[in-house]
Amino acid sequence: MGDLLNNEEIQTINIEETLQNSYLDYSMSVIVGRALPDVRDGLKPVHRRILYAMDKLNLSFGSKYKKSARIVGDVIGQYHPHGDTAVYDALVRMAQDFSMRMELVDGQGNFGSVDGDSAAAMRYTEARMTKYAGELLKDLDKNTVNMIDNYDATTKEPDVMPTRVPNLLINGSSGIAVGMATNIPPHNPTEVMNALKAVLANPNISLTELMEYIPAPDFPTGGIIFGKKGIIEAYESGRGRIKIRAKTHIEQKGKKEIIIIDELPYQVNKARLIENVANLVKDKLIDGVSEIRDESDRDGMRVVIELKKDAMSEIVLNNLFKQTAMQVTFGIIMLSILNQEPRIFGLIDILKHFINHRKTIIIRRTIFDLEKAKARAHILEGLKKAIDIIDDVIRVIRASKTEELAKENLVSEFDFSEIQAASIVAMRLGRLTGLEIEKIENELQELMKLIEYLESILKSEEVLHGIIDEEFDEILETYSGKRKTDVEDDYDDIDIEDLIPNEPMVVTITHRGYIKRVPLANYEKQKRGGKGKTAVTTYEDDFIERFFTCNTHDTLLFVTDRGQLHWLKVYKIPEGTRTAKGKAVVNLLQLVQDEKIQSIIPTTDFSEEKSLVFFTQNGVVKRTNLSEFSNIRSNGVRAIVLDDDDSLITAKIAEPETKYLFIVTKMAQCIKFEIEKTREQGRSTRGVRGIKFKHAGDEVVDANIISSDEQEILIVSEKGIGKRTDAGEYRLTNRGGSGVIAMKMTAKTGKNVVGILMVDESMDMMALTKAGKMIRVDMQTISKSSRNTSGVYIVKGDDVASISRCPKKEEDEEDDENTEGEATLDLE
Asked: How is domain 247-325 classified at the architecture level of CATH?
């Protein structure tokens, strides 16, 4: 015993650490190698191995069936060293038309039923692959996927299938790993292929647009998906819950009504459901049912629920949906493996990963075919060359003592390659006939065309996309089919907006970013000269910067410096009292760190007659139809693609009457051009050049829209000099030009322009100085002057940092001291 303890081979280990490592290894084995499908082919390892074993047994569609026991034996013997029952159960499910949207196995014999009957033993059943399964293995022999060692390194198996069909979505998948689970519903093949074509044509497609092609899952057992909210959540985030209802209809039998169940929710056991309903009736938990029987046959499902004379079918049905599996909840978790890691995917991500997989497969297939074609062309070129000098070739071969020497002599004397020399030596004399020579030349010509085509695939993304699109069309033509599952609205999905009265509101947003809404009725109408109602109690460094009167159903668009657009319904803004501070806007929107809101725009609708115009610091302008922003994600959408050194300055809604766009730079350059000079573009685009800078270091500081030349523009410089000028005084130029001088810059004005405002004499101007002071100026007190002038002092004593419009502040003199620091609104 003492010798054993002193043995140097004994190692001390930490049992806690060892258990953790062992369990982690086990977990990853279950996650990656057992329970979860690959995002590319939608197969778990066991299904992939079953199909590969069947392929090796030549069990393609149209071949003779083989015993399931033989298939299972090959699978567990060569690829999947687990229990034969587990493998056979997987094979059986692949053959069940009520489990798979598109079966992968064509089974002969008893493969179970929707009543929960198990399949016959594997020695009694036979199987082969379906035509659809053949699409998953297409081009497997062309080095399209990586082949990896099997469990004992005695043979190879594919790491993934080179599938032509997005099997993950079409057939779905379910599995429980360690600490995670997947539950992906099946979908309609026609809808999925059309969606793939749409993503291929437009990689920036939105989920709303994509759901026009894939509105919902499509289960092999049919049924009704009740409610769309969960579908949208699942497609967007990868997680969601949907209700599936049995499809029923009502028949009349004398004075009694009969409920007929035509289709059941996915994975519901019919026999168990009938037994459950019978027990509920027996226990008097469901009233009004007199008899239940199963009249299903090979033509389809028919479960008959006869009602009593006084029973109402609608009430009984609602009770059945509530208390039985006639309505179930399907929890969608779109979890699958990508690069040996489990991840949750949205619908668009899954489609894009499949398209990328197809690109990889086609490129690898093309390289394989190209190498094969080049090798064959090389041999044919040698044969053609040999035929042209056949007498010399025959002389050399006859003079050689052995076949090996003949090859060497051909290589040395005529500069043939070794492969060409071997082919020439093996050539039959019959190939010297005129017809055979012509065949060689024709074959060589065809090969050269093929090589040129294959090389064009590798060189052009457009050609590659064309091939993928053609393949999608082939799949569409072969496997098209109508939806089996209907989709109906659920009352729970009714938007809360329908329950909120559409009342007028006052929305105020302060300079520091606090927002609130107050009913307009709280601001009673006052006589002229009244002191006004306090709109918000602000801090010394804050003031009301934006102020809207709108309705609760209206929408506020928030555009950030990074080109993202968020929107918020007015009724979702916290309602407060007149003196409440409000809530920080950043807490209502999903902004990333350091992202700043540049524009807040109210709109009552998303009319196609309106457009949203964006202006960037580098002088780019972009116009997008407002309807493109009618339905966006909670985390916003990309409204404009910005260069790395660019940022958004502002955005404005252009009404049908908008005529011009007006841009001003820091160095007092400005341009006015017709809005029609900027055509409408999609959301994820960059825009076009709005203004060309004359001076290095210049940048856009502000921009606006103009409806008429009679509108007045207020321009303010950093030293507080400002002027009001009619829009008509600014000469109309072409978009992208350098424009004209906006303000004559002198030592008095300072070097830079701070911003512009469209003059509204019912509003005041609020200037924020670099020292943090705020100065309110009545716009009526600012004098008008021509374009190329400096203007007059508006703010003295400190440099101006920014300007904005704000509501007028009207107070009685005697109450001035009581209302200091409070912004007020007069809504007379």
From this structure: 2-Layer Sandwich (3.30)
Band of pLDDT at residue 622, cut at 50, 70 and 90: very high
CA separation for the pair 495, 490 (Å, rounded) = 11
What is 43-162's CATH number? 3.90.199.10
Which residues, in sequence order, are CB contacts of 405 under 8 Å at separation 6+? none
The one catalytic residue among 23, 26, 65, 124: 124
Q: Give the residue among 66, 111, 117 at the shortest CA–CA distance from 91.
A: 111
Whether residue 489 is predicted with pLDDT greater than 80 in this model: the reply is: no
Considering the domain 496-821 in this protein, what is its CATH number? Answer: 2.120.10.90
Lowest mean pLDDT: which of 26-30, 139-143, 726-730? 26-30
Q: What span, in angstroms and rounded, lies between the C-alpha atoms of 701 and 437?
A: 77
- For the chain, the domains span 43-162, 247-325, 351-479, 496-821
pLDDT in tens, 289-309: 999 999 998 888 999 999 988
**DSSP states of 202-241:** -TT--HHHHTTT--S---TT--EEE-SHHHHHHHHHSEEE
Tokens coding 9: 């081979």
Dist CA 96 CA 102 (whole Å): 9
Question: 395: part of which helix (H) or strand (E)?
Answer: helix 390-399
CA distances from 586 to 513, 593, 668 (A): 8, 10, 33
Q: Measured over all CA atoms, what is the biggest interatomic distance in the chain, rounded to whole angstroms?
A: 127
What span, in angstroms and rounded, lies between the C-alpha atoms of 695 and 123?
86
pLDDT at 671 (0 to 100)? 94
Active site residue 65: no
CATH of 351-479, one of 2.30.30.220, 3.40.50.300, 1.10.268.10, 3.90.550.60: 1.10.268.10
Residue range 536-552: mean pLDDT, rounded = 64
Please check whether residue 744 is in contact with residue 675, taking contact to mean a CB–CB distance below 8 angstroms. no
Token pair for 168: 């993950």
H helix count then E strand count, the chain = 18, 42
Q: What is the pTM of this model?
A: 0.60
Please state, in angstroms and rounded to a whole number, the distance separating the CA atoms of residues 765 and 761: 9
At residue 670, the 3 state secondary structure works out as strand
- The sheet that has 544-551: what strands, in order across it? 544-551, 504-510, 514-519, 583-584
Segment (H or E) for 457: helix 434-459
pLDDT band at 6 (very low <50, low <70, confident <90, very high): low
Task: Give residue for tokens 């001390």.
Answer: 12
Instruction: List the alpha helices (DSSP H) in 63-182.
Output: 68-74, 84-94, 131-137, 167-171
Up-side HSE of residue 662: CA atoms within 13 Å toward CB? Answer: 28
Contact 624, 683 (CB under 8 A): yes
> Is pLDDT at 806 greater than 80 in this prediction?
no
Using alpha carbons, select from 722, 747, 697 the residue that is nearest to residue 800.
722
